[in-house]
């Protein structure tokens, strides 16, 4: 691989190096959270976490574990920077984003520290492209304070069933209402659009429902415009965990398998809308 | 009303609603003892479609206690319920439709695989019964064909084409695109297809004629007939009288009634229509070049001052039709007509409910209303 010809002195200067034989494994995950231009990168020994936010009401996180990378070197406890996600995705697909089997873009991503650009070395078919993306000081992402001990209700669904419901949702509705209950309707998605209202009721004991842990009835509304971006992650995923805490905050955790069968996680947090009156 | 459709009939129901959406923007529902009627009409009231679903179409059918109940709603709302036709077949096991007249609510519940339940609550408004007064038995010309034949024929016309002309003789049918007289002749592309009577399951032509109607609405029915594998029957008379397209099964009947362009609405069109008539007499091998000659003749004729008339063949039977439309219907028809409407045959309006009109197959001896211009000509002759 031509990338390996880089001199040792160059390698030494970087505080973060992450290499992938197939850049698509990274670009697909990042596309799932690319609803805003800016992404916050946070790298630790465990791997890479990329965060995108919308109005401090919606937060998306993509987790790429260190094991996914063929080479992962980090010389500090944590490395943080902010980049333009649109530009980064354009660079990752600079060879055209071919889906032909056997043809893939190799990636080496390097960062030298505060003030330095994020440098991408991309190689496909013997051609090497170097991209340098300006970095910014990372903003402090909001802490939704969503902890497992505070989770009221939790279900794990096969993504296919949720994909079908989301594709049919009435987008003229301002909100998506989620009802989770130990008794009927168990797990319900509701919209209130121009045509009228619609309800999607999932039984708790079907093959689609892998886990059903609901301790008390809870109905919350979330702005449809905030949840629409999450459908990209849903499309990639095979399973989704839906959790709500006592404040009505929504956590959607998507399990995504890449081309090589490895697992990544994409996570969406969403604030609830105004208080819901029981219907 | 409460009715349940299961299995493949859910898809048929979805296809029917999809066909109706090609006609108009509102869906009219009228549940009666002998089944559920779904109807639609386009904004210019030149096309009307009706699906009669018999109680046997449903696994369970409970008619409303109020026989005069009927309602309408935006067809987009209902279409959204059956959004993904392909997944319907795979995942929907049962479809339940409930009409609650007290709450003005229509509830459609889809019972899907894995116990997934989709409930749609739609609002509706009360309305008068939407009826078209048409009579298939009184039409002089009848064609019946498998949907494949008609779909393959219509495929040759571009989706943007608005109107199509159908001409018949004793043993063949011509289908061609309708070109407006004022169209730039150098840009107009003529497409013509000729079908032998042997292509049809049933071919009963008692008079040579030529009718022009909208293609978009026809496609709506073709889609349904093709997916249902049911033959299409076509009933028509003369220019200005509506053409009726019918699809019938043991448990359902669909009728599409399309207005046709009247010869008298444009004198130039009258000339064109007459000059096209000789095509019927020519041998089939020469029909392409002959049509070009006719087209050129039509162009030359239209430039002459004042219209000229080709004599009608003395062998052609003369149809005397009485027009007994009531004054009320005529006034309503005139009021609703858009100013630049080409199709001047108006064949229906709102009809007050009477028991005789609730028959599954709407039969009426009353002839279709025509515009005043046509009536004047009748009086003259």
TrEMBL record, chain A:
Annotated compartments: Nucleus
UniProt-listed SUPFAM superfamilies: DNA clamp
Pfam families (alphabetical): Rad1
Broad class of where this protein is predominantly found: nucleus
Keywords: DNA damage, DNA repair, Nucleus
A single GO BP: DNA damage checkpoint signaling
Biological role: Component of the 9-1-1 cell-cycle checkpoint response complex that plays a major role in DNA repair. The 9-1-1 complex is recruited to DNA lesion upon damage by the RAD17-replication factor C (RFC) clamp loader complex. Acts then as a sliding clamp platform on DNA for several proteins involved in long-patch base excision repair (LP-BER).
Entries under PANTHER family matching the protein: CELL CYCLE CHECKPOINT PROTEIN RAD1
Similarity-based family: Belongs to the rad1 family.
Assembly and oligomerization: Component of the toroidal 9-1-1 (RAD9-RAD1-HUS1) complex, composed of RAD9A, RAD1 and HUS1. The 9-1-1 complex associates with LIG1, POLB, FEN1, RAD17, HDAC1, RPA1 and RPA2. The 9-1-1 complex associates with the RAD17-RFC complex. RAD1 interacts with POLB, FEN1, HUS1, HUS1B, RAD9A and RAD9B. Interacts with DNAJC7. Interacts with RHNO1; interaction is direct.
Protein name: Cell cycle checkpoint protein RAD1
Organism: Danio rerio
Automatic annotation (TrEMBL), chain B:
Gene3D superfamilies referenced in this protein's UniProt entry, alphabetically: 3.70.10.10
General function of this protein: Component of the 9-1-1 cell-cycle checkpoint response complex that plays a major role in DNA repair. The 9-1-1 complex is recruited to DNA lesion upon damage by the RAD17-replication factor C (RFC) clamp loader complex. Acts then as a sliding clamp platform on DNA for several proteins involved in long-patch base excision repair (LP-BER).
Keyword Membrane among UniProt keywords: no
Family label: Belongs to the rad9 family.
Location relative to the cell: Nucleus
Chief location bin: nucleus
Segments of skewed composition (Polar residues): 310-319
One cellular-component annotation, GO: checkpoint clamp complex
Chain segments carrying region Disordered: 266-290, 303-339
Transmembrane segments: none
CDD domains tied to this protein: PCNA (cd00577)
Keywords on record: DNA damage, Exonuclease, Hydrolase, Nuclease, Nucleus, Phosphoprotein
Pfam families with a match to the protein in the record: Rad9 (PF04139)
Gene Ontology molecular functions: double-stranded DNA 3'-5' DNA exonuclease activity
Species name: Danio rerio
InterPro entries xrefs: DNA_clamp_sf (IPR046938), Rad9 (IPR026584), Rad9/Ddc1 (IPR007268)
SUPFAM superfamilies: DNA clamp
Enzymatic reactions: Exonucleolytic cleavage in the 3'- to 5'-direction to yield nucleoside 5'-phosphates
Name of this chain's protein: Cell cycle checkpoint control protein
Top-rank taxon: Eukaryota
Gene Ontology terms: biological process: cellular response to ionizing radiation; DNA repair; DNA replication checkpoint signaling; mitotic intra-S DNA damage checkpoint signaling
